[in-house]
Write a structure and sequence with these properties.
Layout: E1 6-12, H1 23-42, E2 45-50, E3 68-75, H2 80-88, E4 96-102
Antiparallel strand pairs: 1-3, 1-4, 2-3
Length: 106
Protein backbone atom coordinates (compact mmCIF):
# COMPACT_ATOMS: atom_id res chain seq x y z
CA UNK A 1 0.00 0.00 0.00
CA UNK A 2 1.34 3.49 -0.82
CA UNK A 3 2.26 5.75 2.09
CA UNK A 4 -0.52 8.30 2.62
CA UNK A 5 0.56 11.94 2.36
CA UNK A 6 -2.63 13.98 1.89
CA UNK A 7 -6.36 13.92 2.55
CA UNK A 8 -8.77 15.45 0.05
CA UNK A 9 -12.00 16.65 1.68
CA UNK A 10 -14.73 17.03 -0.94
CA UNK A 11 -17.40 19.63 -0.16
CA UNK A 12 -20.53 20.90 -1.84
CA UNK A 13 -23.68 22.79 -0.94
CA UNK A 14 -26.72 20.48 -0.95
CA UNK A 15 -28.91 21.29 -3.92
CA UNK A 16 -25.99 22.27 -6.14
CA UNK A 17 -24.62 20.04 -8.85
CA UNK A 18 -26.54 17.52 -10.94
CA UNK A 19 -29.69 16.01 -9.46
CA UNK A 20 -29.77 12.27 -8.79
CA UNK A 21 -31.52 10.30 -11.51
CA UNK A 22 -30.46 12.64 -14.32
CA UNK A 23 -28.11 11.96 -17.20
CA UNK A 24 -25.77 14.64 -15.83
CA UNK A 25 -25.56 12.86 -12.47
CA UNK A 26 -24.89 9.53 -14.15
CA UNK A 27 -22.13 11.14 -16.23
CA UNK A 28 -20.55 12.60 -13.10
CA UNK A 29 -20.64 9.22 -11.35
CA UNK A 30 -18.76 7.76 -14.33
CA UNK A 31 -16.19 10.58 -13.98
CA UNK A 32 -15.74 9.75 -10.28
CA UNK A 33 -15.20 6.08 -11.14
CA UNK A 34 -12.61 7.04 -13.76
CA UNK A 35 -10.75 9.34 -11.33
CA UNK A 36 -10.62 6.55 -8.74
CA UNK A 37 -9.46 4.03 -11.36
CA UNK A 38 -6.74 6.42 -12.58
CA UNK A 39 -5.52 7.01 -9.01
CA UNK A 40 -5.49 3.27 -8.31
CA UNK A 41 -3.55 2.56 -11.50
CA UNK A 42 -1.04 5.30 -10.65
CA UNK A 43 -0.64 3.90 -7.12
CA UNK A 44 -1.83 7.17 -5.57
CA UNK A 45 -5.15 6.09 -4.03
CA UNK A 46 -4.77 4.85 -0.47
CA UNK A 47 -8.49 4.98 0.42
CA UNK A 48 -11.67 6.69 -0.68
CA UNK A 49 -14.99 7.05 1.07
CA UNK A 50 -18.38 8.51 0.19
CA UNK A 51 -20.18 9.85 3.25
CA UNK A 52 -23.87 9.37 3.96
CA UNK A 53 -25.65 12.65 4.64
CA UNK A 54 -24.57 15.50 6.89
CA UNK A 55 -22.79 14.54 10.06
CA UNK A 56 -23.12 15.92 13.55
CA UNK A 57 -20.45 18.28 14.77
CA UNK A 58 -19.40 17.90 18.38
CA UNK A 59 -17.16 20.11 20.45
CA UNK A 60 -16.61 23.73 21.32
CA UNK A 61 -15.68 24.97 17.84
CA UNK A 62 -18.75 24.06 15.86
CA UNK A 63 -19.04 26.25 12.79
CA UNK A 64 -22.26 25.56 10.93
CA UNK A 65 -22.10 26.29 7.23
CA UNK A 66 -24.05 25.78 4.07
CA UNK A 67 -21.64 23.24 2.61
CA UNK A 68 -20.89 19.72 3.74
CA UNK A 69 -18.16 17.14 3.30
CA UNK A 70 -19.56 14.35 1.12
CA UNK A 71 -16.45 12.32 0.33
CA UNK A 72 -12.83 11.81 1.36
CA UNK A 73 -9.81 10.56 -0.56
CA UNK A 74 -6.57 9.58 1.16
CA UNK A 75 -3.79 9.83 -1.41
CA UNK A 76 -0.05 9.41 -1.82
CA UNK A 77 1.49 12.39 -3.62
CA UNK A 78 5.12 13.40 -4.12
CA UNK A 79 4.38 17.03 -3.22
CA UNK A 80 1.66 19.48 -2.26
CA UNK A 81 1.58 20.59 -5.89
CA UNK A 82 0.88 17.03 -7.07
CA UNK A 83 -1.88 16.66 -4.46
CA UNK A 84 -3.41 19.92 -5.66
CA UNK A 85 -3.22 18.74 -9.28
CA UNK A 86 -5.05 15.54 -8.31
CA UNK A 87 -7.67 17.59 -6.45
CA UNK A 88 -8.23 19.82 -9.47
CA UNK A 89 -9.39 16.78 -11.49
CA UNK A 90 -12.34 16.04 -9.21
CA UNK A 91 -15.67 16.20 -11.05
CA UNK A 92 -17.41 18.53 -8.60
CA UNK A 93 -14.92 21.44 -8.56
CA UNK A 94 -17.26 23.45 -10.78
CA UNK A 95 -19.94 23.61 -8.07
CA UNK A 96 -18.08 22.47 -4.94
CA UNK A 97 -14.57 22.44 -3.54
CA UNK A 98 -11.71 20.18 -2.50
CA UNK A 99 -9.72 20.95 0.61
CA UNK A 100 -6.18 19.53 0.28
CA UNK A 101 -4.70 18.69 3.69
CA UNK A 102 -1.19 17.30 4.11
CA UNK A 103 -0.83 14.61 6.77
CA UNK A 104 1.56 15.19 9.65
CA UNK A 105 4.78 13.22 9.46
CA UNK A 106 4.94 10.38 11.93
Amino acid sequence: MPTPTHVLLHRYTPGSGPAEGTAEHDAEMRQWAQVDEDLLTKGALVAGFALDGPGKQLGATQTPGDDMVFAVHVIAAASDAEAEQIASRMPHVGYGSVEVRPLMAR
